[in-house]
Amino acid sequence: MSETTGTGTGAQQGPFGKGVKQRDQIKMSPSEIDEFIKGWHTMNCATMNHDGTIHLVAMWYGFLEGCPALETKAKSQKVANLRRNPQITCLIEDGDKYEELRGVEMVGTAEIVEDPDRIFELGVSVFERTSGTTYTPDMKPFVDVMLNKRVVVKINVDKYVSWDHRKLGAGS
């Protein structure tokens, strides 16, 4: 990607290129974002600590009521932060080379879910995604153990930011 300096339409060449705006070229469509998020990835989640620093953790995730969500210890730092300030930013990314980089940033608010039925629903989603198997009732004890002393953080996304460097055609 290029970086430009200056303002207005007469952007000057920056240290990383010729001032070419490639943002529109690499942005994912809503369906591409949906497909990417539903793939198997680890999600990095950032919340604000009481002292204004960022608390950043990598989490496995699933879906609750169509939204990305994660299960976590009820007394975790991220939950304490979200009870104080529900703002959350999450990042899912992929790629090992520049021309392969792609990702989705989700900015929104978190809902702490403590209802056992909704927690179990998310538990099944995470279990299926991490195990690669379809949930059956005989798996309930495994999901129950996974959810012991847990709550769900449901991410209500207000804004997506996405990129897919493969759209630039470099390296092909």
Mind explaining what this structure looks like?
The chain has one domain: Roll (Pnp Oxidase, Chain A), CATH 2.30.110. 26% of the residues lie in helices and 35% in strands. It contains five helices and nine strands, in the order ββααββββαββααβ. The protein has a seven-stranded antiparallel beta sheet with strand order 4-3-7-8-9-6-5, sandwiched between helices. Strand 3 and strand 4 form a beta hairpin.
- Strand/helix succession: EEHHEEEEHEEHHE
Mean pLDDT, to the nearest integer, reads 88
At CATH level 3, the topology is: Pnp Oxidase, Chain A
The assigned CATH architecture is Roll
Uncertain runs are 1-15
CATH class: Mainly Beta
Strand content: 35-45%
Rg over alpha carbons? 19 Å
Question: What topology does this entry show?
Answer:
Blueprint: E1 4-5, E2 12-13, H1 23-26, H2 30-38, E3 43-48, E4 54-59, E5 62-64, E6 67-73, H3 77-84, E7 87-94, E8 102-113, H4 116-131, H5 140-146, E9 150-164
Antiparallel strand pairs: 1-2, 3-4, 3-7, 5-6, 6-9, 7-8, 8-9
Features:
172 residues, Pnp Oxidase, Chain A, seven-stranded antiparallel beta sheet, two-stranded antiparallel ribbon, globular
